[in-house]
Amino acid sequence: MEDLLTKLDYVEDGAYAHPTRKAIFVGDLIDRGPEHVRALEIVKGMVDAGTALIAMGNHEFNAIAYATADPDSPGEYLRRHTAANGRQHHAFLTQLTPDQREYYIDWFMTIPLWLDLGDLRVVHACWDSASLSYLEQELGGSRFTSTDQIVRSSRSDDPLFTRVETVLKGPEISLASHRQASYVDKDGHVRSRARLRWWHEGPATLRGLAEMGGNFRTEDGQPYPALPDTAVPTSGSYTDQVPVFYGHYWRQGSPEYGHDYTTYTACVDFSAVRGGRMTAYRWSGEEKIAARNYVQV
Q: How far apart are CA 9 and CA 108, in angstroms?
């Protein structure tokens, strides 16, 4: 992160700052990598100093839920302390002291779920206008303001849960309903639903919409085969002519049109904590995404 900020001409003077620009982070600061405390110090320091903005990631939301007692189940938490959840959250739990965790979780609660800055937009996983409108109405804005809202967002039978999931984790498409086999993801979990490429600009086909990149395998260990190019019903992809920047999707290598960026959308998550590259998009007011504006280290 510091190498990337330096390459982008930010200078540390109490907090990293640029004379004419402002950084925007897309969330998921925690749960991966060995330097949690330093990463959090840098980003929070910049946000506090007014030299950066940030949108919440699903890992920040998970941390809040993991630390919040379930009011309906004494002794339990909204995000259950299971072995699987503990493994995912291990780095945050072990690299920070209890006081540090409490301090940063309090900060996480203040982070907006999205940023609409007029000429550009930022969200962790998916810009879905219907979900954002619902959240703005229910939350009274773009931030959580009460524990009750966190509780509701952790209950799968509450509409708030579905909207938060869409914004922070992205929509999904059922493979089973299209007679496709389940797959094993990068973390070894068997899944029957694939992430939906909400940014897709081409025809609405299963191959075009289902996010099946990476080292996914069938349950018997074979490489997952290419999906059929059959048409599927969809409510549509992102059609607004306002650039939107997001993370979450674990890209590899260098940006590729139609996969990492389209005319009005750009992903900046390139698997930095799994051997990939720290990546930014340097936006200068352009109306359409341009690959030359990506910066990687």
A: 27
